[in-house]
Amino acid sequence: MHIDILTLFPEMFTGVFQSSILKKASEREQFSYKLVNFRDYTENKHNKVDDYPYGGGAGMVLSPQPVFDAVESISKNIEGKKPRIILMCPQGEPYNQKKAEEFAKEEHLIFICGHYEGYDERIRTHLVTDEISIGDYVLTGGELGAMVVVDSVVRLLPQVLGNEESAVQDSFSTGLLEHPHYTRPASFRGIEVPPVLLSGNHAKIEEWRREQSLKRTYERRQDLLQSTQLSNEDKQLLNKIKNENN
Q: Is 117 a catalytic residue?
């Protein structure tokens, strides 16, 4: 996968791409990236990329020309499947694990990070393929949102996490929240690890984990249960959990 990020502040991404999993994945060439300052594409003699909104109002609006030209310059030599062009925007589709898994199947992603009051609407309607929001709040720009999306996508690429089961068992990947985890020591300040995890009985451990996953989801995110396909065994466990809670 290759990722291009259009931003007026490329320096914001240095720490993210030069640390932890993203750094290792980049060094192992499991993905590549390029930070593109779309100010470099402006035709404005004062190097501006924004202007006052037609009709008046507060703030400045990003002009279409530098953004269109930057995307077209990136895309002009691409053969085959066209890249997904993602606009980070508080009005966009709420981002979730399912969308991360969808993006992880792509070969090329282009992120557009805005600033100021917003985008010229022609960017939204005639250039992008996806509008994404990471939550119902407004940030000063799209950079932080793009970092979140990139991190969630890259970790799903083959071999990035090392253990392929890690991503499969994540919260939301199964439709449910993930079960609790424990490590050594087995007793810490009088708090014990559940005995089943020390039993060596893998069937019992998997059953416990599934029940804990259902329990945690029921107690914290019941909305997820409405859209998750549950087996008959899951439904029995869920009824047990409900009765215990009541």
A: yes
Give the chain's residues under pLDDT 70: 163-171
Does 94 qualify as catalytic in the annotation?
A: no
Phi, psi of 22 (to 5 degrees): -65, -40
**pLDDT number for residue 166:** 63
Q: Which of 10, 90, 101, 106 is catalytic?
A: 90
210 is catalytic: no
Backbone phi and psi for residue 160, each to the nearest 5 degrees, phi listed first: -65, -45
- CA-nearest of 93, 96, 130, 92 to 110 is 130
How far is Cα 203 from Cα 165, in angstroms, rounded to an integer?
Answer: 17
Going by CATH, does the domain composed of 169-245 fall within 1.10.1270.20?
yes
Q: Which fold has domain 2-162?
A: Alpha/beta knot (3.40.1280)
Single pTM value for the model: 0.88
120 is catalytic: no
Active-site residue (options: 50, 120, 130, 155): 155
Q: What are the pLDDT digits (tens) for 66-117?
A: 999 999 999 998 888 899 999 999 999 999 999 999 999 999 999 999 987 7
Q: In the chain, what are the domain boundaries?
A: 2-162, 169-245
